Structure formats: structure tokens, C-alpha cells
């Protein structure tokens, strides 16, 4: 199931400057995460964006979880 969800996250240099997006649509992962972190529910997002599906939201969350599974984080010089 996880692999099926992660296949919904695509990246193409011609779409959203190569940022990870949902199913080749112009919905970057970061945009959906921002909506969720602002307090929107999955149902509200799906109501506002007709071409998204519940599994798209789950894929975004799984993708973000995978990105956070790093061994260490180093501060970049400012």
C-alpha cells in the first residue's frame, strides 16, 4: 500500500520547477502540507480541489514522513 501511495508523488522538471507534486498535477507536496498545517481538514481540501483524492493527501503525508526520517540534520551557514 505504501508503494502505491508514494507512486502518486511525481516530479517533472517541467511541472512546478521539478518540485514533488501529486500525480503530475500542479499541486506541490509543500502546498498540501501548508493547507493541512493551516488547519484545513482532508475533507475541506478535497471539497476545494475537485481533482484531488483522499489517497493523494495520504501520499503527501507519507512522503513527508519519509523525508523526515533522516539520521541527522546539519545547520547550513547563514
Automatic annotation (TrEMBL):
Pfam families: DUF433
InterPro entries associated with the record: DUF433, Homeodomain-like_sf, WH-like_DNA-bd_sf
PANTHER family: SSL5025 PROTEIN, SSR2962 PROTEIN
Protein name: DUF433 domain-containing protein
Species whose genome carries this gene: Stenomitos frigidus ULC18
